[in-house]
Amino acid sequence: MFQLFPQCERKLKQKGSLPPKYALELLTIYAWQKGSRAQQDFDLAEGFLTVLKLVEQYQHLCIFWTVNYSLNNESQVLRNFLLDQMKRTRPIILDPADPTGDVGGGNCWCWHLLAKEATEWLFSLCFKDKLGCSIEPWKVPTESSF
């Protein structure tokens, strides 16, 4: 994923602002936490493919972690704030350390440009197995929490 971003940044610099790298890092962590648990062996290509598929579905992303905060155990003010965050324009990717930080950014970043590049990468040879068959991404929901 991190090779894709600099290439997209150079290619698309004049067309619009791409999402921050931190958003993609959190998306990668999310894919790894949700998807690789069901696997016997970790496969980097499957993980990369999963992240590309999530980028493609950016309009449906609503991802947050409840390691440092929770909808159930927090004050009513924080609970209401988190619930309001979930109603915002997607993609929503809340910073695990700071739920007030939506690094997904809704409409403020050009996710559509990154999604277009991700779609083109899906046809890369790195997503074929030894027999030339396409590998499958991990099963990861676009809406989730930890």
- What name is given to the CATH topology? Poly(a)-polymerase, middle domain
Main CATH class: Mainly Alpha
What's the total number of strands? 4
How confident is the prediction overall: mean pLDDT?
84
Q: What class would the helix/strand composition place it in?
A: alpha/beta
Shape: globular
Provide an overview of this structure:
- With 146 residues, the protein is α/β, with parallel strands linked by helices.
- It has a single domain, classed as Poly(a)-polymerase, middle domain, CATH 1.10.1410.20.
- Helices cover 40% and strands 10% of the residues.
- It contains five helices and four strands.
- The protein has helices at 4-12, 21-35, 44-56, 76-86, 111-121; strands at residues 62-64, 92-95, 98-102, 143-145.
- The chain has a four-stranded mixed β-sheet with strand order 3-2-1-4.
- A hairpin with a 2-residue loop joins β2 and β3 (98-102).
- α1 packs across α5 (111-121) and α3 packs across α5 (111-121).
- It is globular, with a radius of gyration of 16 Å.
- The two termini are 22 Å apart.
- The relative contact order is 0.24.
Short note summarizing the structure:
It holds the Pfam family OAS1_C. One of its GO terms (cellular component) is membrane. By secondary structure, the chain is of the alpha/beta class.
